[in-house]
């Protein structure tokens, strides 16, 4: 009697994030926490969870709390953390020029040039 064995083969693309450059804390324009750092994002083609082929890579700013991401640009970078004391609740307060959006009006947050909101991202 012959037996038929079926082995599942898993494949896909996985993004790996690694820190790069100056890791000085910067203020996130979306959540206002000092958690933005410079990272390199690499997308790999994987088979059975083994990265085989690098598909793409890019340099970007990423917030480790709210996952806000924007490509690194020559003319813009997130503001450095001021030496002001922390607010109650251990977060950095709103930065100058930031306007809260209580009525849900778009366009009240300051975004870097060339930043485009992706699907499923919060614009609070």
Offer a quick outline of the entry.
With 124 residues, the chain is mostly beta strands. The chain has strands at 11-19, 26-27, 34-47, 50-63, 69-71.
Number of helices: 0
- The proportion of residues in beta strands is 25-35%
Shape: elongated
Please report the distance between the alpha carbons of the first and last residues: 63 Å
**Uncertain residue segments:** 102-108
Helix content: under 10%
Average pLDDT, to the nearest integer? 76
Judged by helices, strands and strand pairing, the structural class is: mainly beta
Query: What is the oligomeric state here?
Result: single chain
List the helices and strands in order: EEEEE
Number of strands: 5
User: What is the alpha-carbon Rg in Å?
Assistant: 20 Å
Major sheet attributes = 5 strands, antiparallel
Kindly describe this structure.
With 124 residues, the chain is mainly beta. Helices cover 0% and strands 34% of the residues. The chain contains no helices and five strands. The chain has strands spanning 11-19, 26-27, 34-47, 50-63, 69-71. Strands 1, 2, 3, 4 and 5 form a five-stranded antiparallel β-sheet that branches. The chain is elongated, with a radius of gyration of 20 Å.
List the keywords.
five-stranded antiparallel beta sheet; 124 residues; mainly beta
Write the layout of secondary structure elements.
Layout lengths: L10 E9 L6 E2 L6 E14 L2 E14 L5 E3 L53
Antiparallel strand pairs: 1-3, 2-3, 3-4, 4-5
